[in-house]
Amino acid sequence: MKKIVLRASAKTNPQVRSYLSAVKKGQKNQHIVPTDSGWKVKTAGSSRATKICKTQKEAIALGTEIAKNKKTELFIHGRNG
Predict the structure, then answer these.
(1) d(C-alpha 3, C-alpha 49), whole Å
(2) Strand, coil or helix: what is 76?
(3) How many Cα atoms are found within 13 Å in the side-chain-facing hemisphere of 44?
(4) For an engineered disulfide with 59, which of 9, 38, 53, 55 has Cβ 3.0 to 4.6 Å away?
(5) Residue 26, by phi and psi: left (phi above 0), alpha (psi -120 to 50) or beta?
(6) pTM of the complete model
């Protein structure tokens, strides 16, 4: 696993702190990631998407439901990453 070093300013970002906390706890968070064909709902650490949705709204709804059921975090990535 590649170690990522964050600048001090990134560690003060509440979203980054939430992500780091979840990773330390070993949670498999859900991510909404843009693709050429739509929006991918993906579990952290998995090689395949749970589902590829046509719209970001649809992907967020599915990702939210999965995150609630698994009691994990949901991270929504924009088109720029």
Answers:
(1) 23
(2) strand
(3) 21
(4) 53
(5) left
(6) 0.71
